[in-house]
Amino acid sequence: MTTSHAAPRRCPDVPHHAWYAAATTEEVGRTPLARRVLGTPVVLYRAADGAAVALEDRCAHRPVPLSDGRVEGDDIVASYTGFRYAPDGRCVGVPTQVQVPFGASVRSFPVRDDGSFVWVWAGDARLAALRPAPDTGWLRDPAWSTFGGAWETKASIGLLLDNFADITHVAHVDPDIAPPALDAAPPPLQVTVTETTMRFARDYPPAPLADWNAQVLELPADAAHAQREEGELVSPGLWVDRWHTTVSGHGQADGVHTFVFTHALTPVDERTTRHVWRVSRSFASSAAAEGTLAPIFERYYGRVREVLETMQRVVDADGPRPEVRVAADAAASAVRRIMERLVAEETGAR
Questions:
Q1: What pTM was estimated for this model as a whole?
Q2: Residue 263, phi then psi, degrees to nearest 5
Q3: Hey, which residues does 203 pair with through a beta bridge?
Q4: Which of 6, 41, 162, 174 has the greatest number of beta carbons closer than 10 A?
Q5: Over the stretch 293-348, which tens digit does the pLDDT of each residue have?
Q6: In what order do the strands lie in the sheet with 19-24?
């Protein structure tokens, strides 16, 4: 008698029934692209009609990556074995025989390409249609100017979400980037929670802008302006921040000027997260303004990455500890509860 053993759940503390940005739209083409999502190797490519395809990156015949192979028509062909796979994962050709072995296939993943990101559904494919993939239309809107970067952070996605849910650390991580409003005690946080999302907002009384922000807006450095912070857990793999500045009494600069900070977060494994970040703005669209802003934010997010990787090393070495919570943690606590509830629903651990 044989006993079957279910494969252990990779990334056990992360929702699997969710959309994760396996790549940006421009990264996926006719050359196979290798990625890992929730510990699973994934190969991405485009079929002849341009549709994005995502398959498990391992040939069913021998343990070789399909990403080492080639795309022919709609199919991908393994380099070592010559096995040919259709976009749905079925093996449709074997070089040494006419008949394809019964049941030969690799896992295929539901895919949505929103023009900015190629989202891959990592869980049960039958549930993908129940939750629409995120859309990041502002990244493609010509009214917005956008720049950004991407890298892998050697830290869990939970640590990254904790970071984005509380910006009070910004003044300590990089004082030059923080607006003076962050120097004072933060105003009350307004938190709205649904089953799968969390939104918060915080309104700051009029205060001067950071020097770099006043520069790109061509405003006096000492002029005070009302500012509003908004953050949103759109889905387990997408965090979006917005920072609004209301200017009045300065002629053409009057109005609401907004930054949108987009963070596509994909768990590579339990301790590594792929982080694609974008900074979009509704003002100062010139190349000169971007030349001022891009190095500032790349430096800041680089410092955040270093801090998060340090946190992960501490947790790995010494284990988790009870944490002291403060009022500013309200949003992060709500996000943790959502993530825990989604995992519990998937695993039946409620």
A1: 0.94
A2: -130, 105
A3: 228
A4: 162
A5: 999 999 999 999 999 999 999 999 999 899 898 888 899 999 999 999 999 999 88
A6: 19-24, 117-121, 111-113
Structure tokens at 331: 């949003």
Which pair of structure tokens corresponds to residue 251? 């002629």
CB 293 within 8 A of CB 306: no
Which is nearest to 56 in space by CA: 72, 73, 38?
A: 38
Q: How far apart are CA 226 and CA 248, in angstroms?
A: 10
Two structure tokens written together for 349? 């651990």
Strands 91-93 and 111-113: unpaired
| CA distance linking residue 94 with residue 175, whole number of Å | 60
Q: Is 159 helix (H, G, I), strand (E, B) or coil?
A: helix
Segment holding 40, helix H or strand E:
strand 40-46
**Cross-strand partners of 113:** 118
104-118 burial, b if ≥16 CB within 10 A, otherwise e?
Answer: bbbebbbbbbbebbb
Kindly write down the DSSP assignment for every residue of 165-232, as one continuous string.
Answer: T-GGGHHHH-TTTS-GGGGSPPPPPEEEE-SS-EEEEEEEEEEEPPHHHHHHHT--TT-EEEEEEEEE
Residue type, 83: F
Give every CB contact of residue 37 below 8 A, 6+ residues apart in sequence.
20, 22, 120, 122, 266, 267, 268
Helix 287-318 vs helix 157-164: crossing angle, to nearest 10? 130
20 forms bridges with which residues in the sheet?
120
SS3 288: helix
Cβ neighbours, 10 Å, residue 226: 16
Instruction: Beginning with the edge strand found earlier in the chain, give each strand of the sheet holding 190-193 in spatial order.
Output: 145-153, 272-281, 255-269, 238-247, 224-235, 198-208, 190-193
DSSP 265-289: EEEEETTEEEEEEEEEESS--SHHH
- C-alpha 95/C-alpha 84 separation (Å) is 9
Q: Is 53 helix (H, G, I), strand (E, B) or coil?
A: strand
- For 329-341, letters b (16+ CB in 10 Å) and e give bbbbebbbebbee
